[in-house]
Write a structure and sequence with these properties.
Shape: globular
Helix content: 25-40%
Number of helices: 13
Number of domains: 2
Order of helices and strands: HHHEEEEEEEHEHEHEHEHHEHEHEHH
Distance between the termini: 18 Å
CATH topology of the largest domain: TIM Barrel
Bound molecules: S-adenosyl-L-homocysteine, iron/sulfur cluster
Oligomer: single chain
Length: 358
């Protein structure tokens, strides 16, 4: 029987469900500080209460079914849910630990977790492997939250160590807005993982009306826009949904989105050989983003068997970046973390042929 998880609830909701309230404080500690996997782990909770709860709820809804570690420290996880569907989450090492000459720690290593929001995706981008498997279902808030709990636990990452979250795994986060925003709030809980909005980045293929809705909720999160093209014709070829949410509607929504004045909106630009890697596109991109506090992240297209697209040349990539920088845009090239373990979204799952079965 499929049951809701305790990770589906905010602390306020748990206080309504479980009495007395000090038990909720203890349970919250077990969930988010000790990363409990089952009721058995919760040592100071009375057996009767645990039995009562276990009739209606489970603790962590995820099981790790596969793990691939890359030489750069990236670990890609294939996770299974109660209905045996699977999805991916990725543990990314962003900065190595820094030691002084005596071997003392100056700065701890920094990590980011990339989470999924759906099994499959409805948007159907022509370059994306997740799209090939179609759409299966939305993830619940608890299944989104459990990805972070599970990966922190598996990497012995203490609850109070800082972590960033990027919603860049499988699925379109804004197409599952309700569960996404609930997960964001649960991550922010002071007595839980305490991950502030500014440490969470929602990546979207550009559902402009939903960008507005997310903005109105004022959760303090960042957004990253998967732009990938500078004219509507090519963008519609890459992202069919562009017909309904075209480039100018996205730019207008971004201008309305509340951002911290010290921060920038990230525009992701997937570079595909002979499609959008030319300097004429770079020139249009500069024009398109004028007046926005933007940062561009160039991504190498990561090929997979059966795709019609090619990875761009390094020289073209660098020329594109230099053009943007020369014209006043901040621009980075995403280093291909975990390239040896097929780290672009959907690629681990597809490798096993698991897409077809789920
Ligand atoms: N649906 C959201 C978030 C998940 S996709 C979105 O599209 O923004 C996360 C990122 O993976 C997107 O920027 C997408 O462009 C990128 N991606 C998808 N397929 C890729 C591939 N084959 N190579 C490189 N990046 C890819
Ligand atoms: Fe969905 Fe993002 Fe893949 Fe497009 S790139 S199909 S929006 S997951």
């Amino acid at each position: 029987m499929i049951k809701p998880s305790l990770l589906d609830f905010t602390k306020k909701e748990l206080l309504d469900l479980i009495k007395p309230s000090f038990r909720v404080n203890q349970i919250f500690g077990w969930l988010y500080h000790q990363y409990a996997e089952s009721f058995d782990d919760m040592k100071n909770i009375p057996k009767t209460l645990k039995e009562e709860l276990a009739e209606k709820y489970i603790v962590n809804p995820l099981t790790i079914v596969k793990k691939e570690k890359s030489s750069d420290g990236t670990i890609k996880y294939l996770l299974q849910m109660q209905d045996s569907k699977t999805m991916e989450a990725v543990w990314l090492k962003m900065k190595d630990i820094q030691l002084d000459e005596n071997g003392e720690v100056i700065q701890e290593a920094k990590y980011t977790i990339c989470v999924s929001t759906q099994v499959g995706c409805k948007v159907g981008c022509s370059f994306c492997l997740t799209a090939k498997g179609g759409f299966t279902r939305d993830l619940t808030a608890g299944e989104i939250v459990a990805q972070v709990v599970t990966l922190k636990r598996d990497n012995h990452h203490k609850h109070n160590r800082k972590i960033n979250i990027v919603y860049m795994g499988m699925g379109e986060p804004l197409d599952n807005l309700e569960n996404l925003t609930k997960a964001i709030e649960i991550f922010k809980e002071d007595d839980g993982l305490c991950i502030s909005g500014k440490r969470q980045t929602v990546s979207t293929s550009g559902l402009s009306t939903k960008i507005d809705k997310l903005g109105e909720m004022d959760l303090g999160v960042h957004i990253a826009i998967s732009l990938h093209a500078v004219d509507d014709e090519l963008r519609t070829e890459l992202i069919p949904m562009n017909k309904a949410h075209n480039i100018s509607s996205i730019i207008e929504a971004v201008k309305r989105f509340p951002i911290d004045t010290r921060k920038r909106v990230m525009f992701e630009y997937l570079v595909i050989k002979n499609k959008n890697d030319d300097l004429a596109s770079a020139k249009k991109l500069v024009r398109l983003l004028s007046g926005i506090k933007a940062k561009v992240n160039l991504i190498y297209f990561n090929p997979y068997p059966g795709t019609d697209y090619d990875r761009p040349n390094k020289d073209d990539m660098i020329a594109f970046q230099e053009y943007l920088i020369k014209h006043g845009l901040l621009c980075t090239i995403r280093d291909s973390k975990g390239i040896d373990i097929s780290a672009a979204c959907g690629q681990l799952k597809e490798k096993d042929g698991i897409h077809k079965r789920s």
